[in-house]
Amino acid sequence: MPAGITIEELRPGLDHELTAGRLGAARGYDRRRDGRTARRRRGDVHRIVASVLAVLALVGCVAAILLLAIAPTAERLQDDVRSLDARLASTQGQLAALQAMTAHTASQSSRLGNGVHRLTHRIAGLSRTVHGLQGSSALVREQSDGLRACFAQLQQELSGLSVTTRSVRGRVKSVGLTEAAGLSPACGAAFSGG
User: Fold this and answer.
1) Which 8-state DSSP code applies to residue 68?
2) Residue 94 and residue 99: Cα distance in Å, rounded?
3) What span, in angstroms and rounded, lies between the C-alpha atoms of 137 and 131?
4) In the 8-state DSSP scheme, what is residue 193?
5) Is this prediction's pTM over 0.85?
6) What is the DSSP letter of 169?
7) Any idea what the Cα angle at residue 97 is, between residues 96 and 99, rounded to 5°?
8) Three-state SS for 184?
């Protein structure tokens, strides 16, 4: 398959072939065919390098042909060939550096993706914690409002309490607490935590 044609461009034709029944029975799993796809992805850098080298080789060939047509002397041609060899060696060094840089960039993007994934999980956990704390603070605020509303009734009840004691021969046998008025059911629920 040429490097410039993508699967998406071939898909309409393949769909037509499949519906027309020209391809025959469906093939089973083919490890070689599936492995080629992975090798193609890994080989993208190699194809780019090969394409650049091919372009450089074509440029070199065109220059050599023009030099042969213009100046046919052998010494001049040898100097030009040496110059082209030096440029080709320099370009190959640059291509090696480009391959190394591409590999480094790919590893950095993988690490950054992992970091973003971890941060996303942490943010989700913090969001759940904040939501829980907001619910708890709303509940505490509700309970404190209920306690404040019952404070006046509590003061009345405390002022209406009286202590009674029973003694036999100078010894206290029992102590009792009597209340004049009880709390309302709403205040009783607020103080009991219900």
Assistant:
1) H
2) 9
3) 10
4) T
5) no
6) T
7) 65
8) coil
* Alpha carbon distance 97, 103 (integer Å): 10
CA 124, chain centre distance (Å) = 12
Q: How many residues does the chain have?
A: 194
Specify the DSSP element, H or E, that contains 176: strand 171-178
Q: How far is CA 119 from CA 36, 123, 180, in A?
A: 35, 6, 61
Are 95 and 49 contacting, i.e. CB atoms less than 8 angstroms apart? Answer: yes
**71 residue type, one letter:** A
Locate 35 and state its tokens: 């492995």
Question: Do residues 181 and 156 make contact, with C-beta atoms less than 8 angstroms apart?
Answer: yes
**Which tokens in the block code for residue 174?**
């029992």
Residue 123's alpha-carbon distances to 113, 119, 133, in angstroms, are 15, 6, 15
pLDDT of residue 55: 92
Instruction: Answer for the pair 120, 140: CB distance below 8 angstroms, yes or no.
Output: no
Half-sphere exposure for 189 (CA within 13 Å, toward CB): 8
Distances from the Cα of 164 to the Cα of 34, 124, 158, 170, 177, angstroms: 94, 60, 15, 15, 6
| Residue range 27-47, pLDDT digits in tens | 555 555 555 565 666 667 778
